Amino acid sequence: MQLSEQEIVRREKLKNLRALSIDPYPANLYPVNHTSKQIKQDFAEGKQVVIAGRLMSRRIQGKASFAELQDSEGRIQVYFNRDEICPGDDKTLYNDIYKKLLDIGDFIGIEGELFTTQVGEKTVMVKNFVVLSKSLKPLPLPKTDAEGNTFDEFNDPEMRYRQRYADLVVNPKVKDTFVKRTQITNTIREFYNDMGFLEVETPILQPIPGGAAARPFITHHNALNIPLYLRIANELYLKRLIVGGFDGVYEFAKDFRNEGMDRTHNPEFTVMEMYAAYKDYNWMMDTTEQLLEKIAMKLHGTTKVEFNGKTIDYKAPYKRIGILDAIKEHTGFDLYMKSEDEIRKACKALDIEVDETFGVGKMIDEIFGETCEPHYIQPTFIIDYPTEMSPLTKKHRSKEGLTERFELMVNGKELANAYSELNDPIEQRERFEEQLKLSEKGDDEAMFIDHDFLRALEYGMPPTSGIGIGIDRLTMFMTNNPSIQEVLFFPQMKPEKKAIEMSDNEKAIFEILKSQKTMNLADLKTQSGLSNKGWDKGMKGLAKHGLTKVTKTDDALIVELQD
């Protein structure tokens, strides 16, 4: 492991602390009785406090020093005075340990007394302190010059997501996002608990990945010698509980889908699913409006929430429009009761790419996604989906070929999906068999047949409505974060590339190419200013590292930087 100069210095300080018989990682409890927030809220001159946290800044002025301590609630100013800390002749605790052996980022515990400085700052006068954890790697803290300009901010997204622990320390607003996320889930729990519903848990490892149309992750159980799937949805298990006699159940579930990743999708995500007996999708729309209003008010004190430069108003009621009506409005194509060939022709006319594995439902989904979704910024219920799109949904009570399903769209994205649940076991089996035909046709997202779920339905399930709400996406909308990675503590990332040691010749070429990505080889050589020998060595080295690729065109040789 190659250490930086600062890391080497910090390890030397670690040795010196131990040489002074100080354990830099003590095991015993430290009796914290106040947080920074509590001190500020309940401040009283002369009050004795015990606090702990990271040392985040300090200004040493000989025998005295002002510093900042950061704990889970924020920061508080602390004042170190040599004679207060070391009343006797031995000044080691201040002169050596505090001034020389502590670093920014170290955890310390402080016993002190509250006072107010001449400029009105609430401060802790340090009477004694202990080292609780020595930091061996410098925090990526921003720097501010005399003019107030800030430099070296820790704002590179990839670094922040990989090192979320550092991100949380140096970027306070990040922590606020995750506090709000917990407030969202707590509000949902309170809402459903007040309705008398029961929070439950269902299996993550499942013999059949049911409840949604998605590509699953697969694993193998050695003892049972069977394949198992990480769940793509928890729907079918929750409906089994309705069969079993519960009138209302909900679950915050981790689901997994082996599909693409982008700013709004992560392969592991959180969904809240709720099922209520004796209800339908009309009741569910009314209830969902009430829930989202409550969440917005809890977090912001208003139903109007800013997101990505827009103001989203969660005040009920929300617009409701049929999916086929939306398509007709935005494309002019009336697809109601149209054949697969007719819908395929509409896709071609709209320049929407589909292949032979797509059935009616998937093609309509593509058309809606391409031509309609961006228009629904304010909360809108898209309702009454074709039967082919909704294999678990009850047929519409008055509209042939449609089902009682809705998706809630916000800012052009799906936030919730809900049905009047299909509870006819014979029809459900037929729907599953239609999905099997799609699978045989090549659709790798078609649903499996879950025979045990069909058996459960045969025992009888009452009229039921269910909903799934994406918690990650809801958190994005409620905290003004346009990327899902910002609302996941540890989003999935590509494997971290090892740092490559480059020679001076390689660096000279790489730095020029880094800004251009692709360059004419002759121009790159000229700009590098290297000798022929240095150029040859540099180019061979970069190719060996897999950083460059040279291709020949009709006119010249082109150098391309490789990711």
From TrEMBL:
Known EC number: 6.1.1.6
Binding site for Mg(2+) 1: E407, E414
Record keyword GTP-binding present: no
Reactions catalysed according to its record: tRNA(Lys) + L-lysine + ATP = L-lysyl-tRNA(Lys) + AMP + diphosphate
Gene Ontology process terms (BP): lysyl-tRNA aminoacylation
Occurrences of domain Aminoacyl-transfer RNA synthetases class-II family profile (ranges): 181-491
Cofactor: how and how many bound: Binds 3 Mg(2+) ions per subunit.
Coiled coil segments of this chain: none
Cofactor requirements of the protein: Mg(2+)
Compartments reported by the entry: Cytoplasm
Keyword Transport among UniProt keywords: no
Domain of life (superkingdom): Bacteria
Signal peptide region: none
Residues annotated as binding Mg(2+) 2: E414
GO cellular component terms listed in the entry, alphabetical order: cytosol
InterPro entries linked: Aa-tRNA-synt_II, aa-tRNA-synth_II, aa-tRNA-synth_II/BPL/LPL, Lys-tRNA-ligase_II, Lys-tRNA-ligase_II_N, Lys-tRNA-synth_II_C, NA-bd_OB-fold, NA-bd_OB_tRNA
Protein name as it appears in the record: Lysine--tRNA ligase
Organism of this sequence: Pontimicrobium aquaticum
Lineage of the organism: Bacteria, Pseudomonadati, Bacteroidota, Flavobacteriia, Flavobacteriales
